[in-house]
Q: What sequence folds into this?
């Protein structure tokens, strides 16, 4: 099978995500900032990435670390000024690195001027910018649970009405049904495009259109109902994105990726359709969520390790079923996920480096645009938070309060074990630059504790070691830039019954790439390479044994027809 794929720069690019708060602090206040990013651009240039996705840097009271925006056209005080932003943008561009902004427009902060007006009275011109409902029998309009625990509705005294917040109560949802809201959002996006940014990662964009009946959701945890069926992929979401595309996106050459909670293959084929009428690609979550529900303690909270074959079945499905129809994004890590080497690999001293490289190979040889989350290129690991007082993430803090303190559904110890396994703060510990105090992240007191393993796992040590995870990622990026089969080749699954080895082929114009990854700490039989001649593009082992993959071994072989 051969697909003629339309070539675009963002299909050929490798993206690096920066979570600014945790990346690099330039002024000793313990908080990462824009000048800190600018200072470290040469490091990213050395890694070889093409694009930075910047988690939100807009003005924000920081209830959810910038995902609660109070002014879309200004910079968060903690992070610097608009001049610092412009400096970062032009320095990045001079190094050939593009900047993709996080667009958070499902909701604003409750401190945004629109919301301050909106809540004043029912006839305020901004009232209808948000989703207000009258009480039902003196209580919440329905049983929906917010994604950050508690009811998704908050009563407001001035009007006696409830407003909807799918996330924290400081993140009221915008009412996209109101054309004025869409005008405002599209104007703001155009303003950033005119500034010269290169794209948008769109926060929970699959949630902008709500089922206007606002019905009760199915029971979630015995306390509240699930809002997802009525807010994800809602009735008008494609209409809104097509309007956004017509009015803004189509006027620029942008990378666009929608964070699409609850997305199915069928929906993704619309969001990321090859005709380009909506977005370039979406982030799907199925491979991150294999333990939700039955296998978990409660909701997303678990201490278990996901099975490779489940993860593989999902990723293979996405590879095969988007072929020729829509473009995939590829990721293991982001600021909402635990560290991949701890989650899917083995972060022990013995296997950390090998398993981090194996996982990187497994993902980066697939079809789609790969995303690397800060520190992933160092093989950074989960950390251990000893108590909830060390945690900072509002999702963790609220879940702990609801499940442990208020409803006694889970013990504190079990909840901490879950947080240490899947909590978002694992990704948010400071970037480990060197072995000096606080990992070289700050000269002050970091806003969240540093992972104590920074003395051995850090960028300086990695750059001094030719066998480091860093140089392995560098090589994966270079390979993608050099070989069109890695970008455009058709994906063909192999060994789908094998419980230990994840293998596949990529095929393009007479080039065949064979990829095999051992996801275990035991040698595994694998005869895929026996009798094949070709060029080895990359492997985390220098020597191979015929018919066997060593523990966590990854191998990539290219055969080219004359
Ligand atoms: C997205 C972000 C997450 C944030 C949430 C609400 O899922 O990635 O960090 O908390 O949206 O904006
Ligand atoms: Ca700072």
A:
């Amino acid at each position: 099978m051969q697909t003629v794929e339309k070539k675009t720069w963002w299909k050929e690019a490798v993206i690096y995500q920066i979570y600014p708060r945790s990346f690099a602090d330039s002024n000793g206040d313990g908080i990462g900032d824009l000048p800190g990013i600018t200072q470290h651009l040469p490091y990213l240039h050395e890694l070889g990435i093409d694009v930075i996705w910047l988690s939100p840097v807009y003005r924000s009271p920081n209830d959810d670390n910038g995902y609660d925006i109070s002014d879309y056209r200004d910079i968060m005080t903690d992070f610097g000024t608009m001049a610092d932003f412009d400096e970062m943008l032009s320095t990045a561009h001079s190094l050939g690195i593009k900047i993709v902004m996080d667009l958070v427009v499902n909701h604003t902060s409750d401190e945004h001027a629109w919301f301050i007006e909106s809540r004043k009275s029912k006839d305020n011109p901004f009232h209808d910018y948000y989703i207000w409902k009258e009480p039902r029998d003196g209580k919440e309009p329905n049983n929906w649970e917010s994604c950050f625990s508690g009811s998704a509705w908050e009563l407001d005294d001035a009007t006696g009405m409830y407003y909807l917040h799918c996330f924290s109560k400081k993140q009221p949802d915008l009412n996209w049904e109101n054309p004025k809201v869409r005008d405002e959002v599209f104007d703001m996006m155009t303003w950033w495009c005119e500034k010269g940014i290169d794209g948008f990662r769109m926060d929970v964009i699959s949630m902008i259109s709500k089922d206007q009946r606002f019905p009760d959701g199915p029971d979630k945890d015995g306390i509240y109902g699930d809002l997802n069926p009525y807010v994800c992929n809602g009735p008008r979401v494609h209409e809104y994105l097509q309007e956004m595309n017509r009015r803004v996106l189509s006027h620029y050459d942008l990378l666009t990726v929608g964070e699409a909670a609850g997305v199915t293959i069928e929906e993704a084929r619309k969001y990321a359709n090859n005709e380009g009428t909506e977005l370039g690609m979406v982030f799907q979550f199925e491979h991150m969520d294999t333990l939700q529900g039955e296998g978990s303690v409660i909701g997303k909270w678990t201490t278990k390790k996901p099975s490779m074959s489940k993860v593989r079945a999902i990723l293979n499905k996405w590879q095969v079923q988007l072929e020729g129809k829509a473009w995939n994004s590829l990721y293991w890590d982001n600021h909402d996920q635990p560290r991949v080497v701890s989650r899917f690999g083995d972060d022990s001293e013995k296997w950390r480096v090998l398993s981090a490289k194996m996982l990187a190979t497994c993902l980066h040889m697939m079809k789609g645009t790969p995303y690397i989350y800060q520190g992933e290129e160092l093989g950074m690991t989960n950390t251990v938070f000893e108590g909830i007082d060390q945690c900072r993430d509002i999702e963790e803090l609220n879940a702990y309060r609801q499940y442990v303190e208020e409803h006694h559904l889970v013990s504190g110890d079990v909840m901490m074990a879950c947080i240490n396994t899947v909590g978002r703060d694992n990704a948010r510990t400071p970037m480990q630059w060197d072995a000096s105090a606080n990992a070289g992240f700050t000269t002050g007191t970091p806003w969240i504790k540093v992972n104590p393993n920074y003395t051995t796992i850090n960028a300086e040590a990695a750059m001094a070691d030719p066998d480091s995870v860093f140089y392995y990622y560098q090589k994966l990026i270079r390979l993608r830039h050099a070989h069109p089969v890695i970008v455009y080749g058709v994906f063909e699954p192999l060994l789908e019954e094998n419980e230990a080895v994840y293998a596949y082929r990529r095929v393009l114009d007479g080039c065949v790439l064979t990829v095999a990854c051992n996801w275990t700490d035991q040698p595994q039989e694998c005869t895929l390479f026996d009798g094949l001649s070709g060029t080895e593009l990359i492997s985390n082992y220098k020597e191979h044994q015929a018919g066997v993959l060593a523990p966590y071994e990854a191998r990539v072989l290219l055969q080219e027809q004359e």
Summary: The chain has 17 helices and 20 strands.
